[in-house]
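Lecture 7 notes: from sequence to structure.

We start with a single chain of 87 residues. Read the sequence below before looking at the structure.
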Amino acid sequence: MELSKHDLAILELERSLWTEAGSKEAAIVSQLGLTVTRYYELLNVLIDRPDAERYDPMVVRRLRRIREQRRQSRQDILARASEELSQ
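Now the structure, written as tokens:
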């Protein structure tokens, strides 16, 4: 499967360094015409695609790492909460 112009625009947006959260959200809406929620849904699918990794391996791998760190953090929180409830 080939990356669409829309896919490329998402990856290009992720290449940018964002110092303020609000500016990224504004760019998502103004440049891509997406809600922030929809953007992250599409991004999550996109970074699992081999063609996205071939296009920009550094960005895709960075995003995968961040996603995995967040998943692990959520799992740790749930495990601690479960532990506290069982005591």
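The CA atoms of residues 13 and 27 lie 8 Å apart. Keep this in mind for problem set 3.
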